[in-house]
Amino acid sequence: MKILVTGANGYIGQGVVRALLDRGQKVIAVDFGIDRIDERADRRKCNLFEIENPYDEFEKPDIVLHLAWRDGFQHNSLNHINDLADHYNFLSKMIQAGISQVTALGSMHEVGFYEGSINENTPTNPQTLYGIAKNALRQSIELLQKDYDFVNQWIRGFYIVGNAKYGCSIFSKIAESVEKGKKTFPFTTGENQYDFIDYDDFCQQVAAVTLQREVNGIINCCSGRPLKLAERVERFIKENNYDIQLEYGAFPDRPYDSKAIWGDDEKIRRIMDQS
């Protein structure tokens, strides 16, 4: 199949493009920059939102995998709200032109403050501009299903563990600090429990979701179990043999972060069993 991947040069995009290419798919990889995209892909450097007819421009792909999003780790950046219409307009153009499948990356931050396991029926009450914008985009795409026939998949991402220094997660920031020679890293109490998934596993899950059409709607890409933040970060430091110590309590816990939240992995286990 021909798959258009937006945000392909980003932290997640790079790994997902590789996973799709390794599965023998034709990938058109689009972003503002293309320097970190696997050269096996058809790489296109452009501003996605300035293209009048993206469906024709990108040679009528079978699937659009929409990963593009800026300031993902700056949860109250105004860009989340300012860019929302651009994301919707792009996807609606693709849908109206006849794309048969839309797979987009969401976030567990759409749910807001919640305790326990979340699934596709868990009510959403986002507490940040990031969560609000993602949730609004999801709901907007769902409305288009009333008028257009397409497969709609919304990937709800959780906490990704990887040591790429150009990422913005706490794990990437630790890797960057180590490279700079720092010996301590300011940290929270680390008591909150989240659903952590290794970077490569997450990319494989996203690829598997995209390449099937039986399981749709909201799909958690996750491990399916909670783990204390401190425990996972300490393990990350040990796994990578980093010479750095966490400075516990340097930052307060964010008030909008749940004390314990994880994804129901029933759907993704079904997909991975068949992939």
Task: Walk me through what this model shows.
- With 275 residues, the protein is α/β, with parallel strands linked by helices.
- It has 2 domains: 2-159 and 198-222 and 264-274, Rossmann fold (3-Layer(aba) Sandwich); 160-193 and 226-247, no CATH class.
- It has 9 helices and 15 strands.
- The protein has helices spanning 11-22, 54-57, 79-82, 84-97, 129-144, 170-179, 199-210, 229-239, 266-274; strands at 2-6, 26-31, 42-45, 63-66, 101-107, 116-118, 151-157, 159-161, 184-186, 193-194, 196-198, 217-221, 227-228, 245-247, 261-263.
- The strands form 5 sheets. A 7-stranded parallel beta sheet has the order 3-2-1-4-5-7-12, with helices on both faces.
Can you lay out the helices and strands and say which pair or pack?
Elements (H helix, E strand, L loop, with lengths): L1 E5 L4 H12 L3 E6 L10 E4 L8 H4 L5 E4 L12 H4 L1 H14 L3 E7 L8 E3 L10 H16 L6 E7 L1 E3 L8 H10 L4 E3 L6 E2 L1 E3 H12 L6 E5 L5 E2 H11 L5 E3 L13 E3 L2 H9 L1
Parallel strand pairs: 1-2, 1-4, 2-3, 4-5, 5-7, 6-15, 7-12, 8-11, 9-14
Antiparallel strand pairs: 10-13
Helix pairs in contact: 1-7, 4-5
Structural key phrases:
two-stranded parallel ribbon, globular, 7-stranded parallel beta sheet, Rossmann fold, alpha/beta, 2 domains, 275 residues
Share of residues in helices: 25-40%
- CATH hierarchy, class of the largest domain: Alpha Beta
- Biggest pleated-sheet summary: 7 strands, parallel
Strand content: 15-25%
Oligomeric grouping of the chains: single chain
SSE series: EHEEHEHHEEHEEHEEEHEEHEEH
